[in-house]
Design a protein that fits this description.
By secondary structure, the protein is an alpha+beta fold. The chain has 6 helices and 6 strands. A hairpin with a 5-residue loop joins strand 4 and strand 5.
C-alpha cells in the first residue's frame, strides 16, 4: 500500500503527539482520538477527502513528546521530537460520544521542519515536514536479507515461537517487499523500549534498521534457547537442590 500513496509534503500536516512511538511505516494500529483538539483534527482530515475514498483524507503525522513528564492538558504545548511517522486513516468509526476510533497505516518517516501552533478555530498543531528515508524508489525484495531472517526464525530456538508465525508467513509469500518485513520486525522487537523505538523511527538508513532487526532476532534466539536448556535441565533434575 505504501508504494502507491504519495504524501504531499508541500502542505502542512496535522500533528498527533503521543508519549512514545506507536507506529512505523508499513505497520498499522488502532487508535482513539478523544481530546477535543484531536477529535477536531480527525474531522478536518476526513473533511479534506471531499467525496473521495477514505485514503483521500489528509494525512496525520504521529509525533512523540520530547520529555516524558508531560501528561494531559496543560497550558502551552509540549515540545516534540523531530522524527514522525506520516500515516493515513484506512478505517474509521465515529463513536456515539464524539470520539474517533481509527486504524492508522504508517507510510513514511519525516522530520519536523517547523510547527504552527493552534490558531483561530484550529485546536491542534500543524507542521511542515520533510521526508527522511534515504531511498526514494519503490520497496523491493532483498532475498539475501530474507534468507538471514528465515534462518533465524525457522530454525533452532525460535522455530516454534508462535509470535513469529506472521513473519514466517510473510517471508514464505515471496511477493512482499523486504522492507515491509523489516518494519514489522522492528516494531515487534523494539517492544516497549521507547528510546529504541524512536531511534529506529528516526533512522534514515534501511540497512541499519535491518541490522537492528537481525541483531534483536539473534539475541532473542539466544535467550529462548537458554531458557529452553534451563527448563530441560530442571525437568531432569540437573542442578536441583
Amino acid at each position: 500500500m505504501s508504494a502507491t500513496i504519495q504524501i504531499d509534503f508541500s502542505r502542512p500536516i496535522a500533528l498527533f503527539p503521543l508519549p512514545a512511538v506507536a507506529l512505523f511505516p508499513h505497520t498499522a494500529e488502532w487508535m482513539v482520538a478523544f481530546e477535543p483538539r484531536y477529535r477536531q483534527m480527525v474531522e478536518d482530515c476526513l473533511r479534506a477527502r471531499g467525496d473521495g475514498a477514505l485514503l483521500d483524507a489528509a494525512p496525520i503525522a504521529l509525533a512523540t513528546y520530547a520529555g516524558r513528564s508531560w501528561q494531559g492538558e496543560r497550558v502551552g504545548e509540549p515540545p516534540l521530537r523531530p522524527a514522525v511517522c506520516v500515516a493515513k486513516i484506512v478505517e474509521h468509526r465515529a463513536l456515539p460520544d464524539g470520539k474517533h476510533h481509527m486504524l492508522l497505516h504508517g507510510f513514511c518517516r519525516a522530520r519536523i521542519e517547523s510547527i504552527s501552533e493552534p490558531e483561530g478555530r484550529r485546536l491542534y498543531r500543524l507542521a511542515r515536514l520533510a521526508p527522511i528515508d534515504r531511498r526514494r524508489s519503490a520497496p523491493r525484495r532483498m532475498p539475501v536479507l530474507e534468507g538471514e531472517i528465515a534462518s533465524l526464525i525457522e530454525e533452532g530456538a525460535l522455530a516454534r515461537w508462535s509470535q513469529l508465525d506472521a513473519v514466517r508467513m510473510w517471508v514464505k509469500r515471496r511477493n512482499l517487499p523486504t522492507e515491509f518485513i523489516v518494519e514489522q520486525l522492528v516494531a515487534m522487537l523494539a517492544g516497549r523500549d521507547a528510546d529504541a523505538r524512536y531511534r529506529m523511527l528516526a533512522e534514515p538508513n534501511g540497512r541499519v534498521r535491518a541490522r537492528f532487526a537481525l541483531s534483536e532476532l539473534a539475541h532473542l534466539q539466544r535467550m529462548v534457547g537458554h531458557a529452553a536448556t534451563r527448563s530441560a535441565a530442571g525437568e531432569r533434575g540437573v542442578g536441583a537442590n
